[in-house]
Amino acid sequence: MKLHELTIKEAHGLLKQKEISSRELTCALLDRIEIVDEKVNAYITVAKDMAIKQAELADQAISDGKITYLTGIPLGVKDLICTKGLRTTCASRMLENFVPFYDAFVVKKLQEQGAVILGKINMDEFAMGSSTENSAFKTTCNPWDLASIPGGSSGGSAAAVAADLCLGSLGSDTGGSIRQPASHCGVVGMKPTYGRVSRFGLVAFASSLDQIGPFAKDVFDCAALMHGIAGYDSMDSTSVSKEIPSYTSFCTNGLKNITVGVPREYFNLSGVDPEVLASVNRAIKTIEDLGAACVEVSMPHFEPAVAAYYVIATAEASSNLARYDGVKYGFRDESRGDLVQMYKSTRSRGFGDEVKRRIFLGTYVLSSGYYDAYYKKASQVRRLIMGDFSKAFEKCDAIVIPTAPTGAFELGGIQDPLQMYLQDIYTISPNLAGLPALSVPSGFDQNSMPLGIQFIGPQREEIRVLNFGHQFEKKMKFSSQIPENFGEINV
Amino acid sequence: MKISHDEVIHVAGLARLEIDKKALDKFAMQMGAVLEYMDILNSVDTTGVEPAYHAAHLSNAFRSDIKAGHAGRDDVLLNAPEKEDGAFVVPKVL
């Protein structure tokens, strides 16, 4: 038995039976990171000593009979979620030496349940990107093909799960940053309903869109992680106080009496790989075989959604990132002049190109004379998109669409910012409408790279989309496939 | 082009950013292309549509008016690039 290959469910069973200890499991993962992560580059910081200490505490808790589902389970955390005493960089020079003095709500929750945090994971700088190439520190590779991108912005979180460098991980999703890399790396990833998971301690990108969510090897593990991180938090004023159902209680009767909505507009796009469409059409057939009825629904505003998203997200980002001024924390360049010069040179040297582009765009669309034409207009389109979903959910229980327009592309394959933004075409609408959405592996493209399918549900219906994903996965068994191309490094 | 060099410099100044002169052309072109793409928004009829600034159906979140803990001064100053006598230090303003 290779410990790193275990699912959370399997590891939990072995820990509970005391057949393995968390220390053994944690050390096996740390050993593997040491060898394999040289190729994958998923981790920015490996917290070896801290992880072993947490594992020993977990073993103590287990021997005291206090075991939860996540006790002793080694996980990775995207490096924009604050961890007390552990460097949190956002993959930016700006925060290269930033050590938070508090834990994010989700980190606190994981620790209360005895989970082990192996380290902090690479990403696009400040979560801005779709390929993880915008990290200031390293380029994460796709475990299925080391010359390809892992997706982004949570590319490291997806790659770490795919390469068995943790049993599960946390990422964040503002416009697809969990689902798109999950699709590219052949793992399961979920963006919860806006407000379901507290954003306290999540470094802000676009506050009305950001959500923390899990990556896992299968839907059951994803549900278990969701259960571990969801819940009301008074420190996040947008936190939802509704009760959390048991996410792992899946239906046992397939998808009978369930209706799936298929928005045809999403299938008639130029630039979408025909393999992606073929894979989704096969998936829809499978869903019908499982007993669900498929109906056509309409999403008339899905094309302007990308533009609306990039207006709203950059506007919010320009405001959120104003805090990096070289005074309170982070990088400061004081080579020149007065206070304003210090701000300018700090921000110009501390931020990477894509972050500067987005701050610029956000400042532009909010600036005097342009506010109504861009920000207000985009917010009106956002209302229309929310309305499209509401109408669709009158006819169906969940919507199914591809996760990304293509499989993972080669590192450096997209240089033009606008082309990169269009990678998010399938993922941004659920963020604009605050809906839960799950990406599950659905097959492979002609280059043998993984593809994903996305299930979207009404607000707070995570359990519904998880059930969909679980039934689909049980039938298709793509989630259990793992990359084999590590060759000799696949220890 | 959708956006001139002067406009780029003006907006960058509002954002407290400096755009490298050598990169100005490329930057203006990239931003111009994105802003042009955003014109697709004008094809949508939004007459009478209330803007949605949020997807959550929330009203204000209030807490009870009771004393609660807060971060200590040393903690807050922990990551400051420059500090002195319990305060942040900035370049001379006056």
Question: How is the secondary structure organized here?
Answer:
The complex is a heterodimer of chains A (491) and B (94).
Chain A (H helix, E strand, L loop, with lengths): L7 H9 L5 H19 L2 E4 L1 H16 L10 E5 L26 H8 L3 E6 L33 H8 L5 E6 L5 H7 L2 E4 L19 E6 L2 H11 L29 E5 L10 H16 L3 E5 L5 H18 L18 H12 L2 H14 L4 H25 L2 E5 L14 H5 L6 H6 L3 E8 L5 E7 L5 H15 L15
Parallel strand pairs in A: 2-3, 2-4, 7-8, 7-9
Antiparallel strand pairs in A: 1-3, 4-6, 5-6, 5-10, 9-11, 10-11
Chain B lengths: L4 H10 L9 H14 L35 H5 L5 E2 L2 E2 L6
Antiparallel strand pairs in B: 1-2
**If helices are DSSP runs of H or I spanning 4 or more residues, what is the number of helices of chain A?**
15
The CATH class name of chain A reads Alpha Beta
Distance between the termini of chain B: 41 Å
- Work out the radius of gyration of chain A: 21 Å
The overall pLDDT of chain A, averaged over residues, is: 95
Number of strands of chain B: 2
Shape of chain A: globular
Largest sheet of chain B: 2 strands, antiparallel
Task: Find the structural class of chain A using helix and strand composition.
Answer: alpha/beta
Give the strand order of the largest sheet of chain B, numbering strands 1, 2, ... along the chain.
Answer: 1-2
Which secondary-structure class do the elements of chain B indicate? Answer: mainly alpha
Trace the largest sheet of chain A across and list its strands: 1-3-2-4-6-5-10-11-9-7-8
Order of helices and strands of chain B: HHHEE
Work out the number of β strands of chain A: 11
Which term fits the overall shape of chain B? Answer: flat
Kindly report the CATH topology of chain A. Amidase signature (AS) enzymes
Number of DSSP helical runs of chain B: 3
Largest interface: A-B, 75 and 50 residues
Percent range of helical residues of chain B = 25-40%
User: How is the biggest beta sheet of chain A arranged?
Assistant: 11 strands, mixed
